[in-house]
Amino acid sequence: MAITTEQSRAHQSAADAAATQRGSNELVKLIRKLRWIGMDDEAERLQAELTRRHAAADSVVAMSGETD
Questions:
Q1: For 10-68, what is each residue's pLDDT tens digit?
Q2: Which of 5, 9, 18, 47 is most buried as measured by Cβ atoms within 10 A of its Cβ?
Q3: Rounded to an integer, what distance in angstroms lies between the CA atom of residue 12 and that of residue 47?
Q4: Is 47 contained in some domain?
Q5: Containing domain of residue 28, as a range?
Q6: Do 25 and 33 form a contact (C-beta atoms < 8 A)?
Q7: Is 54 within 8 Å of 62 (Cβ atoms)?
Q8: Count of domains forming the chain
């Protein structure tokens, strides 16, 4: 069974979307770690980058309360 150009493009598009999501997930993890260790300025810079990448910032990164 041959793969059409349209199927190939759809597959590549799905792969690109998955890669973008993985990249966003990694940024979210890094933002949370930076906030946890008190590097809020760097976390804000990365969150701005994530927002520029058209991610939904309100559902991606939530500020946690202080924990001891």
A1: 766 766 666 666 777 888 899 999 999 999 999 999 989 888 875 444 454 555 666 65
A2: 47
A3: 27
A4: yes
A5: 21-53
A6: no
A7: no
A8: 1
Distance of CA 19 to the CA centre of its chain: 10
Residue 42 lies in a domain: yes
Q: Is residue 38 part of a domain?
A: yes
d(CA 62, CA 58) in angstroms, rounded, equals 7
Pairwise CA distance, residues 47 & 27, whole Å = 8
0.90 surpassed by pTM: no
- Reading phi first (left if > 0) and then psi (alpha if -120 to 50, else beta), residue 38 is in left
14, part of any domain: no
DSSP output for 11-27? HHHHHHHHHHHHHHHHH
Number of neighbours of residue 60 by Cβ within 10 angstroms: 16
